[in-house]
Amino acid sequence: MAALTPISRTPVSFYVPVVAAAGAFAGLFVGTAQGSGLLGIVVGAIAMGALAYVLTQIIKSETPSRWGTVVLLAVVGYFLGGLPAMVIGGIFGWLFAWFSFWLYEGRYRAKVPPYLTPMQVLWHFTFRVICGAILVFLITPILVVMPLSFNAENFFTFTPEMLRFDPAGYSLKHYRDFFSSSDWQNALRNSVMIAPVATLLSVSFGTLAAIGLSQPHVPFRRAIMAVLISPMIVPLIISAAGMYFFYSRIGLQGTYLGVVLAHAALGIPFVIITVTATLVGFDRSLTRAAANMGANPVTTFFRVQMPLILPGVISGGLFAFITSFDEVVVVLFVGSAGQKTLPWQMFTGLREQISPTILAVATILVIISICLLTTVELLRRRSERLRGMSPG
Amino acid sequence: MSDVTDATTANQAPTPDDAARLADSKKAGPVLAADGTPLKRSLNRALRRQKLRALMLVAPLLIFVLLTFIAPIADMLFRSVENQIVSETLPRTTDLLGDWDADAGALPEAPVYKALYEDIFIAQERKEHTRLGSRLNYELTGVSSLFRKSGRKVEDMGEVYQDQFEDLDEFWEKGENWNQMMGSDDWLADHAAWNEDSGDRQPRFELRDDIAELLPETAAKYEIFANFVQVEDEDNLYTEDPWAVVYSALYDDLTGPNAAQIANYSGFGADKLQAAAAAVSEFETVDFAAAFEDIDKDWSSMDVWQTIQMYSPKYTSGYFLNAVDMQKTPDGPALRDENERIYGTLFMRTMFMSLMITGSCILLGYPVGWILANLPARTANLLMILVLLPFWTSLLVRTSAWKVMLQQQGVINDTLVWLGVVADDSRLALINNQTGTIIAMTHILLPFMILPLYSVMQTIPPTYLRAAKSLGATNWTAFWRVYFPQSVPGIGAGSILVFILSIGYYITPEIVGGTTGTFISNRIAYHISSSLNWGLAAALGTILLAVVLGLYWAYDKIVGIDNVKLG
Lengths: 392, 567
Description:
The structure holds two protein chains of two kinds.
Chain A: H1 12-34, H2 37-59, H3 62-104, H4 118-148, H5 160-163, H6 173-180, H7 182-213, H8 221-233, H9 236-249, H10 256-280, H11 285-292, H12 297-326, H13 329-334, H14 342-352, H15 357-386
Helix pairs in contact in A: 1-2, 1-3, 2-3, 4-15, 6-15, 7-10, 7-12, 7-14, 8-10, 10-12, 11-12, 12-15
Chain B: H1 7-10, H2 16-25, H3 39-79, H4 84-89, H5 91-97, H6 110-125, H7 129-137, H8 143-168, H9 175-182, H10 185-193, H11 209-214, H12 216-233, H13 244-255, H14 270-279, H15 288-295, H16 302-310, H17 318-323, E1 326-329, E2 332-335, H18 343-374, H19 377-392, H20 395-406, H21 411-419, H22 434-457, H23 462-470, H24 475-503, H25 507-512, H26 520-529, H27 534-558
Antiparallel strand pairs in B: 1-2
Helix pairs in contact in B: 2-3, 3-27, 5-6, 6-8, 7-8, 8-13, 8-15, 12-13, 18-19, 18-22, 18-24, 19-22, 20-22, 22-24, 23-24, 24-27, 26-27
């Protein structure tokens, strides 16, 4: 966004106290960690206030002062607490130098409307910090799991070696565990055997039905839709209980087929929703044109309709796949030991707390979901482009 | 459809019914299609065909979902009221108990005890009495052991008669004599021709007609015995000696109303039967009521009999009453004692925690939704990844992450201790309680709140806020009176979604909830896999399902199920 407001340098009486306040805040944490919070506040405020003044009024040039601060604070950090503190100090240095110039040059004003009062500007940035904190909350668990999975010890927390960035603190042993343990490999094999078959079932039935549902005249459309969507709405524990009772009556409980059928049923709503959404933008005259040129319905479907709705079908299939691949409640009840899937194995591991191998598995699963997310996003863009609704 | 060249192709108009109406409105006689049929009928036929084709496309999936999903749910609803086990295991007793009046304060009459003896005898041969015992134990503690004990000792009662008959004549000891006497001629011939090693099915026992009239009780018991031996044990009936209960039935017949006709009987073993008929008056008899009381004095307690009577019907509301902390009493449903009520608290807790989770999701989701809707599209898309990534990550991964982070020795506590916020010896208890469940589930369900909020907020023009401010509104007024009311649909949609999802959650509370942070679904799982009280699990599930469907209905009214979007 172009600058909304012309900017001008701010007076020393504004930015030095603000930077000092930020320094006090940071000093509070560093101080408590070192033993005295109060001292930390005072030292932080004075040091950072002075730093801001020196950088802007004496050095004046931005790039050298930024790197200088990084080096200075990194060295201070190294003497206070070794390697990890050095990294933290470096980050602090970069942050404070940037913050000083950001305030001093008045750059913070550039992107907010000129008519805002100072309080409104303050609120504007406070609000962003709050949102940032919430987004960090959303992402932290994933960020914590990844480094912990390289832990050399069997602990679920960061060891001092890890915090010192000591290579001895890190290892791939949990990944080796995962690939060599027969329990985990069995679980992986079961997951890989169950999820694709369940996906295939729900995608083939679901696509057909979605095409049927998007015809202009469907009797009982709402009722049918409600039935087909219901596996997504009914709480999993209820589905699991019902399936357990019913499948044990008809002898499917504890069989591979039973689990596959159950997972296919759970995946169907996702296929229906995504494919129906894609079909909304499908031009019906294309099928008529194909029929007009002598194609029979099957050819029309595979050569004309299918290629156009394929992105929707694939992303529906990915949803169905991840539903089955992640599912644990239903398989816990409908399956038996022979159908132990990856999530089930993780669930048992978490309940009995065996080893951080779970974290290695979790990391692998996160990477898989990132790949799937990227695929779905690309497909969505492609589908929107095909339909002439390019993303804004 | 390529070969159809006449009117039907023309009928593929986008809206045949509109065209039909158009055709109807022209008063100048019926308009004809190319093949000579009236256009209206032809169009109607095309419409019908279209509907049929749509249904045919939907049918496979509909049948699939009905079989794999709806049928199990229906089965669960059925199980929550089903109670056939009592009347199936104790058919004679429950029959007689129907007339018994518990309020009169007297124990059931002697025939009831005799019926109970016969029922338990047959049930213990089929190994069904323990199942019944554990079923009734849900309603009255102690019944399980009572039935197990009775099952072990009930044989002794019948043996009193068996021994006397066998002492009288060795004829009564042999299974083949019984077969000759009871079986029909056809069956005896078939059985003689059957070769046990051939692998053929054993000829099924058939009763001799006149013996059923002469000795009705004995014949009935013998038929049950023969059926059990042949079908369930798959043994050769010829080599098996009858159960003791057959002898007591024979005693009943010989002393019963038909006794006089025995003198006229002339079939196999007539002389032995007549000799026995003459001797039975000297037999030692069993007082079943006293014998049962001997086994366990609970059989003379009104509670046991009342429970059996109360749960005799094939369908019961007992499970539902249990699920809402009530119980059946002779005076109708009543609340349980204060210290026995658990489900009310559990439902309240589930509601309370789901509300807390929904509330925190609104608090955290609203600012994020706002900022995503108000940032330039490129930045918003980048930040959206941060929202979608957890949404796409496996539930187990996120739950394990929270378990790792919230532990006493976990990342959060370690950080807090390092920062000096809490002392090392007073680390916060963040896991295995309600706090843990609420934190973890808020995180897990937050994307479900952000996405609907974002899509609603995107449609609110930012100019409205500026207009309000230029008209003199303060920041707060402009937000509260102008922006907020327009974002309420998003809050509603997100809240119902989060609430529906959280109320039925199982995995996360199970792992981070400990004992105080669990939901009703954890109790359902416990009843299915540990306590095996399936009926109660089904009743709890039914109540939960009703709540969720109610909310779902509201969601459909407010948002419309067709508007559910993913990703």
